[in-house]
Amino acid sequence: GDVEGNPFCVMEQREVHSSTGPLAALPLDSADPDRDAEFWSWLSGWQDAPGNAPRTLRHPSGTGPLLELCLESQPKGSAKNRMHLDIRLEASDDVDRIAREIAVRGGREPDPGWGELPWRVFTDPSGNELCLLPASPRG
After folding, report:
1. Can you give the pTM of this predicted structure?
2. How far is residue 55 from each of residues 10, 104, 108, measured CA to CA in Å?
3. Residue range 32-79, pLDDT digits in tens
4. Which DSSP string do the residues of the chain spell out, in sequence order?
């Protein structure tokens, strides 16, 4: 792990990671990798890609890290993830419409009790936290 105790893996070279760059994969525990792959693909625009996990997604450009949806060893429970993913919205995105669609797709918008924030906190269908960040101020 790193100095704060966050786990990470240093792996041998694998063909599936040949064009990912130094950050090869973002593993995400999933109660249902097929369901969660559909959720994350819809939310991020990332597409199915070859990988070692039950389901793997990648940016449509075919570059950058893989999002690996790994079968969780036990249900998540209510503990906060040590790491979460942030999704930056586009200027044309309607955050309230996206929030409704997240709920329809099995996610939730919990109240973390942090007060007013410039972003909104959600969970995916397996309970993994994510944040929707406002659009970048640069046009």
Report:
1. 0.83
2. 21, 21, 22
3. 999 999 999 999 999 999 988 999 999 999 988 999 999 988 777 666
4. --TT----------GGGTTS-S--EEEEEES-HHHHHHHHHHHH--EE---SSSEEEE-TTS-S-EEEEEEPSS--TTPPPSS-EEEEPPTT--HHHHHHHHHHTT-B----S--S-SSEEEE-TT--EEEEEPPPS--
